[in-house]
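User: Please predict the structure of the protein below. I'd like the answer in structure-token form so I can feed it into my own downstream comparison script.

Assistant: Understood. Taking the following sequence of 497 residues as input:
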Amino acid sequence: MMGHQSDAQPKLFYHSFNLDDRIPATSVLRKIRKHIDFAFIYQEVKDCYGGKGNVSVPPPVILKMMLLLILYNVRSERELMNTLPMRLDWLWFLDYDLDSEIPNHSVLSKARNRWGVDAFQRFFERIVWKCVESGLVDGSKLFMDSSLVQADASNNSVINVNKEALKIHLVRGFNELESRLEEKEKTDDDHPPKTGPANQHYHSTTDPDASVTRQGGGKRTLRYKAHRSVDGKAEVITATEVTPGEVNEAHLLSTLLSMHQANTQTNVETVVADMKYGIADNYLACCDFEVKAHIPDLKKSHNDFKDIFDEKDFQYQPETDTYLCPAGHHLKRSSYKPQRDVYEYRGSSKVCRNCSFVTQCTKSKNGRTLKRHRRQDDLDKMRSAAQSPASQRDIRTRQHLMERSFARATRYGFKRARWRRLWRVQIQEFLISAIQNIMVLLSYGKSCGRAQEGSLSFAQKLSSVLHFLFVCIQNAIFVFNNILFLYGKPRSMSVGV
């Protein structure tokens, strides 16, 4: 008989209800809670709280809420708090009960302002170190790249920073800016203003740290740029830095390399990056760090005159400190450029004009000019190593590896900033990178569990063997009974006939 659900009154009391029993063993939150210790945050933020006043939400709970916000890509903090009572796994993860009071959504923004960037950076670094302890980082090969992040600001907020336009804006927004002054003094003193050519003329009134950036042939938008270094063994993010979108990623190589070594305590053997990193400063930085630079040379991609003699066609004469051109003439040192740390070598304008190779050598009426870096020998050595077959393989690998890293980050809202100001976007990037590393840890835990099967005790092995034999006997009996059923019944029928 078909049953029908009755309109029963909801139960008012649940005497045997246990929230832990409702969370499946496969839940990602159960795995995170098992492997990640959030209690460290007490020590990190203890100086951010006073000894008087109302009792605040425990810092580990706040950190877990921030993790939920990013992990499930919840649209807003308000939505997180509204959804929290309906999610048993979230309540369990936060050590809340069904009747626990849910805090106001403002506790998260207040905690960010109170803690600053450092607390979230420590969290990211702890996750990286846990990956190191688990054998997921060897540090031998480091991949680098960057990706743009859309700022939480409209293009309509961009104004031209000329005198008149700025005066109009300041008059209009004086009251609003005055109300934000206290927050600005508390949170932004340690963050230097951005510089760059794009924002010398344009400025966002809602997010001053974001910069006007064009990606490819698209329109100009307000963006940040997230820079990452990823270890080649298990694709663990070992270092990350957020800058305004206008900042060239080439200037972050030394920073990421230093952060990687500090976070992992490993020595890098090879740095792999794309052509945008192929500048002299980066080659020399790798030389100083004593690591290989598998980076394409940016200089080769910017040869505007394909029919002109290349620099390699000129031979440097160390004994005379001159260059010998293909026609046999000498280019002498003429000046030193301290900004780029290069010496300039120039041929005689009179000799160059009368040279038979002048059309193949220079377009200038003043003769051919060459630049030589003060550490040119080191540059030549690093650039030569970057052309090796091993370098080419690593460069191809880097493309797919870094694309995967940023593609996985999009699951957690990477492509758009949740909050405004550079330091807040840095917090977002630390959380996203930490979550990606946690997922690597959890994935490694599965393989680790399989690897440990061979270390069972003798009793466990004997029990497994006996269970296997028992199953085999059961299967044999089942097959024998089926045979009797199939062949026994026809015999009885033939005898009856």
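That's the full token string. The mean pLDDT is 81.
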